[in-house]
Amino acid sequence: MNSMPLMIDLTDKHIVIVGGGKVATRRATTLIAYCPNIHIVSPSLTPALHTLVTEDRISWSKKAFEPSDLEGAYLVVVATNEPKVNTQVKESLPKGVLLNHAADAQAGDVTFPSILKRGRLTMSVSTNGASPKLGAHIISTLSEMYDERYDTYIEFLYQSRQRIKALSIEPSEKQNLLQQILSETYLNEDQQREFMRWLQSQV
Questions:
Q1: Does residue 88 share a domain with residue 29?
Q2: Which ranges carry the Siroheme synthase central domain (predicted)?
Q3: Which of 83, 115, 114 minimizes the C-alpha distance to 101?
Q4: Out of 10, 42, 91, 123, which could bridge 20 as a Cys pair, Cβ 3.0 to 4.6 Å?
């Protein structure tokens, strides 16, 4: 699989997960942060998935898989421990619908990378199914480098950029200011507030 990383807006998409075990739980837990329209097809669920159903955060068809379950799906995740069911899902996939095959990354066209989010900052690492544990290890290392301070720092960069763009100064001066706030000095929230006050005074 020669995969290209993409950022996809799943807000209005319909996602179907076939399977209700641990892997399906991990997939649903990841997807629910990006998509409110997730449907599970499985005779049974893990307690964690059952809680999500009870809270109306996902929907559930308590039954065995049927091809009609894939109607209207944008992305299908097959995550069962039954090879026959996995094959049936793949063979029933409507044209143009994306597939994540949890048991065999090469059998699908979408893989789930390890993800680190810090506010507006998203970092992902994929080994194309070779070693998910390595991907998780790299993300763990990155989480120490880019700690929780980056939650507010990234928002500071965004707000500062909007205000700098609006200033009536030379383009080169704007670029200098944008470069200035990349200094680790501005990981400090007091420094962020001071810079924002200065920007406000320039309006």
A1: yes
A2: 118-138
A3: 83
A4: 42
The answer to whether residue 1 sits within a structural domain is no
DSSP-based three-state secondary structure for 9:
coil
DSSP 78: E
According to DSSP, the residues that pair with 125 across neighbouring strands are 114
Are residues 106 and 30 part of one domain? yes
How far apart (Å, rounded) are the C-alpha atoms in residues 103 and 113?
15
Same-domain status, 39 and 71? yes
Give the count of domains, the chain: 3
- DSSP per-residue string spanning 83-121: HHHHHHHHHHPPTT-EEEETT-GGGSS----EEEEETTE
| Residue 190: C-alpha distances to residues 126, 144, 145, 176, 193 (Å) | 36, 22, 21, 21, 5
